[in-house]
Amino acid sequence: MTDESSASEIEPGVSRETLGSIFGGDEGVARAETYVGLLATEGITRGLIGPREVPRLWERHVLNSAVVAELIDSRSEVLDVGSGAGLPGLPIAIARPDLSVTLVEPMERRTVFLFEAVQELGLDNVEVVRARAEEVDPKGEADVVVSRAVAPLGKLANWCLPLARTGGTMLALKGRSAADEIERDKYKIRKAKGESPEILTCGGEFLEVPTTVVSIVKAG
Ligand SMILES: C[S@@+](CC[C@H](N)C(=O)[O-])C[C@H]1O[C@@H](n2cnc3c(N)ncnc32)[C@H](O)[C@@H]1O
Question: Considering the entire predicted model, what is its pTM?
Fold first, then answer.
């Protein structure tokens, strides 16, 4: 993989100090820069990211994903369902080396990118699994199952909650649709063993637009 364009050409929109706080210091910031560089080059040429996303790779994609780490307990086992080019799983794994993160993605060309990115970023806390969420085995073991832009909330609950342990949590990154999706899909969520969904925001102290997350605990 080549990193032709320097990530420093793409403005993060936050200070160096803020980047350091989000990614836990210089090593994390350097990895995040490398990842942005990969998205802006290989991510575009392989059709994983639209070219129009380049100016907003930092804020809209990488930082909005990384701040979700603040909702996750230390040393958790995390699954990212429908990871695509690694969002939100890779920024979370960069920000939090104490977490074990598994990126679940069914499409081969995306998993090839993910394998290469993990190697290039030198991340030893990340695994890549090529599978649909429904096929993942074992089920019922993850502490936290994250997802972003994968499916409507009811369908996501059916895919993500079986992968979480009892008392574990699914965290679905959702925008303004969060409340409407909860209202529309509340019976599906309950049927999938989800306790009362909560809408949380994270990254508010760092980002102009905080990340909105629907958090659902798996009932026994
Ligand atoms: C719109 S992309 C979002 C990718 C990434 N999460 C992001 O925010 O950029 C949706 C992703 O979900 C994956 N996907 C679709 N159905 C899935 C399933 N049943 N299980 C796991 N992933 C799935 C697709 O292959 C695709 O990579």
Answer: 0.96
